[in-house]
Amino acid sequence: MHTLTLQDVADLAKVRRAVVSMWRKRPMVRGVSMPFPDPVETVDGVARFARADVVDWLARTGRGNNPEHIDDAPALSVPESVALEDVVTLLCWHVLTGEDLAGTSLTERIHGADEFDPDDEFLATEIRELRAADAVLSYVDDLVEATLGARDALARLESGRLKRVMGLRDLTAEATELLRCIIEAAAVHLGQDQVVLGVDGSAVALDVAEACGLEITSEDRPLRRRAVIRGISVREYPGQKRVSAVSLVGLDPAAALDRADEIVVGLRAGDVAILLGPAAALSDELAGTLQNRRARTLRVENLVVAMRLPRGLWREAHRQSLAVWVCIGGARAQQPWVADLAAIDQIELTDLAADVAGALAQSEKRAFRYSRRIGLSTVLARGPVVPRGVRAMRLGGGDAATHVDRVHHATLVTTAPLTPLDVLVEPSQTNLQLQRRSLGELHAHNHLVVKRGRRINPADASPDGTVRVMPTERFGAIALDPFDAELKYPRATRTEPGDVIFVEKPRPRAWVDPAGGAMVASPARILRLRESAEVGPTLLATVINETTTPGSEWPMWSVPVMSRDEVRRLETALLAVEEYEREALRRATAARDLKTALIDGVAAGALTLDAQPTTPGVAVAIDTRTRKGR
Question: Are 388 and 340 within 8 A, CB to CB?
Answer without folding.
Answer: yes
